[in-house]
Specification:
The protein has 241 residues and is of the alpha/beta class. The protein has a single domain, classed as Carbamate kinase. It has eight helices and eleven strands. The chain has a nine-stranded mixed sheet, sandwiched between helices. It has a two-stranded antiparallel ribbon with strand order 7-8. α1 links the parallel β1 and β2. α1 packs across α3 and α6 runs antiparallel to α7.
């Protein structure tokens, strides 16, 4: 992809956790947080960036936790996929209030509220300068939204996968629990896998490694960081070869 207005990346897959939408609460969607995030996404889109979003559903429901409590894993994962669709619709609503044409494409068929995910359709939306929100993960149980983000990033030929988190990069251990944790500016896919670093799940890292899709892990809570990362500023940690 050619640079746009000096930006490093022209087509981006941004992975947001469901928790990024709940603000200070313990669950659900915080309307003010979604408004602030949508302001930033609209500003980035206005620069000419082709933007695809994958959002998790952990602020509403987690299939893995439900399975550990006795629920059937497949049923729990399907409920989690529907949670991502709820979050996607919330983001779509706020982006369109800012004049950004947005399409939700779902891996689960939900024709009344979202288009089915069809790769060529997704690419066409990007070419028409629409933001696409890719909901319902891969449409399959046992796969996380991190893996869905890696898969969709490859399918749409994204320049980079941006992993938005609550920390400012990749650490050797959880910095909230270990004050001696080391932050990495750059780390390889293989090092992430071998050291068990908490970036994305192993399936997502392996997909990116096999297809050379770089990952940037950064703090979503600092205003303007999405644009800084896309501009190529040294924000967060880069996972690459």
């Amino acid at each position: 992809m050619p640079d746009r207005d000096g930006l490093r990346y022209g087509r981006v897959l941004l992975k947001l956790s469901g928790e990024a939408l709940m603000g200070p609460g313990s669950f659900g969607i915080d309307a003010e947080v979604v408004r602030i995030l949508s302001d930033e996404l609209a500003a980035v889109h206005a620069l000419g960036v082709q933007l695809a979003l994958v959002v998790g559903g952990g602020n509403i429901f987690r299939g893995v936790q439900a399975a550990s409590a006795g629920m059937d894993r497949v049923s729990g994962d399907h409920m989690g996929m529907l949670a991502t669709l709820i979050n996607s619709l919330a983001l779509q609503d706020q982006l369109e209030k800012r004049g950004v044409q947005t399409r939700v494409l779902s891996a689960l068929e939900s024709r009344q509220v979202a288009e089915p995910f069809i790769r060529r359709r997704a690419l066409r939306h990007l070419e028409k300068n629409r933001v696409i929100i890719l909901a319902a993960g891969t449409g399959n149980p046992y796969f996380t939204t991190d893996t869905a983000a890696a898969l969709r990033g490859l399918e749409i030929k994204a320049d980079v996968l941006l992993k938005a988190t609550r920390v400012d990069g990749v650490y050797s251990a959880d910095p909230a629990k270990d004050p001696k944790a080391t932050r990495y500016d750059r780390v390889t896919y293989q090092e992430v896998l071998e050291r068990g670093l908490r970036v994305m799940d192993a399936a997502a890292i392996s997909l990116c490694k096999e297809n050379k899709l770089p990952i940037v892990v950064f703090d979503i809570r600092r205003e303007g960081n999405i644009r800084r990362v896309i501009a190529g500023e040294p924000i967060g940690s880069v996972v690459s070869e």
